[in-house]
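Q: Could you write out the predicted structure for this multi-component system? I'm mainly interested in how the pieces pack against one another.
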Amino acid sequence: MRHTYHDVEFCATRVALSLLAGKWKPILFFHLFAGPRRFSELWRDIPRVSKKVLLEQLRQLEAAGLVERTVHNGFPPEVTYQLSAKGAELGPILRRLDEWAVKHIEGVVQIS
Amino acid sequence: MRHTYHDVEFCATRVALSLLAGKWKPILFFHLFAGPRRFSELWRDIPRVSKKVLLEQLRQLEAAGLVERTVHNGFPPEVTYQLSAKGAELGPILRRLDEWAVKHIEGVVQIS
C-alpha cells in the first residue's frame, strides 16, 4: 500500500531519531544505561552542559516516556533519573549504532 | 578510563545520529534500502520534498560516504543513487529503531 504525504511526518524512524538526536541526549542515554543517576551526578559526569540545559533535556526525555524521575524523601529530598522500560529497550540499538560509527566514522570515540 | 570534554563532540552515537536525523534522511534511507534509484524516482516517491532540498540531502549523504552517485552514459545521461556498503550496514539498525518506534510511539507509521 503506497503511503501518502503525512507519513513523512509520522515515519516511525524519523520520529525515533528526532527523540534521540542532539548534542546531549546520546551522552545522557549513555550515562543512564549504567543505572539510576542523581541530577548532580549527571551534571558532574557530562562536561560543559549547563544545569538549565541538562534539566530541559531530562524533561524532554521524561515527556517522551524514555526517562522516569523519582523523588526520594529525606532531607534534603533527592531526585534520581532512570531509563523507563521503553527507554532501556533502545540500549542494544544505540550500542549497534555506536559500533557502526566507531567502525566507519573517523575521529569519533566510543565513550567507555 | 574517564573521557574528557571533547568526547561529547566526538561521541560516536551522537555523530551517527546527526548523520541520520532530520526530516528527509530517514525516508530517503527507506527508499534507498530498496536499491539504486534515479533522482526522478526519489523525487516522485518522497512527497513534498523540493528538488533543491532532495539534492542537498543526497549530497550530504554522499559526503558522509553513505550514498554513492553513479552517472550512466546515454542520452540524456542518467544519474542513480545507491547506498554504499557503509550506508547499507545501517539497514538492520534503522529497522530495529523503526520497530521500537512503532511499538512505543503513538501515531507513527511504518512506511511499507
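A: Regarding packing and overall arrangement: Chain A is about 55% helix and 10% strand.
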